[in-house]
Amino acid sequence: MADTVTATIRYVQRDESSDVSEKPYILHYSAPDGFPQNNFTIKPVHGIRVHNFRTAGISYEDYGIGMASIDSSSMKPECFDDDDWVERVYLPELHRGVCAALGAKDMTIFDWMLRKRAHSFPVRKPGEDNGESHQPSLSAHIDYTTAELASRLPRYFGEDKDEVLSRRYQVINIWKPLTGPCRDFPMAYLDPTTVDREKDLIAVDEVFPTVANEVFQVRWNPNHKWYYMPDQLDSEVSIFNAFDSEKGQSLAVPHCSFDLGDAEGSAVPRQSIEVRAFIFY
Fold first, then answer.
1. Exposure of 123 by Cβ count < 10 A (0-12 exposed, 13-18 middle, 19+ buried)?
2. Which family is this sequence assigned to (predicted)?
3. DSSP state letter for 1
4. Span 133-161, mean pLDDT?
5. CATH says 4-280 is which class?
6. d(Cα 86, Cα 195) in Å, to the nearest integer?
């Protein structure tokens, strides 16, 4: 297994013709006639070296990227189409595995999502299988800004917010393929210690019909160092940090999917599940 692969990573680029005083945004619904769907572009950067996380010798504590093992012996891909099964079987097993891996006392899950890649992705065809499903996310990003997370705390914890957050906590993402080894659009993780937080991160509003969420998109920086987990199995979950109550977002991990190209072989279109959670110590 090679220690690196060469790949294309997609980064944000502001439209030079746009008003620089206008906050970046993307509309997740059809824009009115004449109104731009977004005011930035995503630019592919070729020739990026993506390193083997398994042989890198880096720790979750220092880099915000880690792995955990779960018992997936009874977890068939079709099981994940049943929301009740996910809540009853998968999430409790995930709770056990992640807390054991991180040495945490508890975990509160607040969101999860399935992704099923359409065969034509990234150019989608109307009416094809999985065409309406969530697709892999190709641009380097962090799911939340600090301000976005702060705005969500009352929603998640209500009157217990202050008591809950008096403990040390982290907000984490947990990702796994539904089948393995995963060679079709695996996840890539950007070493957060190579990110210039002032220059590389752009706050972007993702606008939906009834709500707007603020995320970070990432500008290219030649100092960036990327990792992935080759041939990730369905019994392996990757864990990556989004916020730490003691360290803020200094170890928040930008991430995206990427195309392995020829190294992919005859891999089937990826199906995966991602979970977002608070972890308490």
1. exposed
2. Belongs to the asaB hydroxylase/desaturase family.
3. -
4. 91
5. mainly beta
6. 35
Q: How is residue 5 written in tokens? A: 């692969």
Token couple for 45: 């950067």
CA 227 to chain centre: 13
- Name the residue with tokens 């199906």: 271
Contact (Cβ atoms closer than 8 angstroms) between residue 39 and residue 22: yes
Look up residue 279 and give its two tokens: 């972890």
Q: What DSSP string runs through 11-23? A: EEEE-TTS-TTSP
> How far apart (Å, rounded) are the C-alpha atoms in residues 254 and 210?
26
DSSP 173-201: EEEEESSSSB-SS-EEEE-GGG--TTTTE
CA dihedral 235, 122, 268, 82 (to 10 degrees): 50
Weakest mean pLDDT among 129-133, 181-185, 247-251: 129-133
- Token pair recorded at residue 251: 């170890």
Structure tokens at 111: 């969101």
Q: Where do we find the tokens 């608070």?
A: 278
**The two three-digit tokens of residue 105, written as one number:** 């006392």
Task: Give the β-pairing of 141-142 and 271-280.
Answer: unpaired
Query: What Rg do the C-alpha atoms of the chain give, in angstroms?
Result: 19
Beta strands in 28-104 (DSSP E): 40-52, 65-69
pLDDT in tens, 3-61: 899 999 999 986 666 666 788 888 888 878 888 888 888 999 999 999 999 999 999 99
What tokens appear for 86 in the block? 């996910």
pLDDT at residue 211 in the model: 85
Pairing of strands 106-116, 212-218: unpaired
Cα distance between residue 239 and residue 133, in whole Å: 23
CA distance 4 to 58: 15
Q: Whole-model pTM?
A: 0.92
pLDDT, residue 192, reads 98
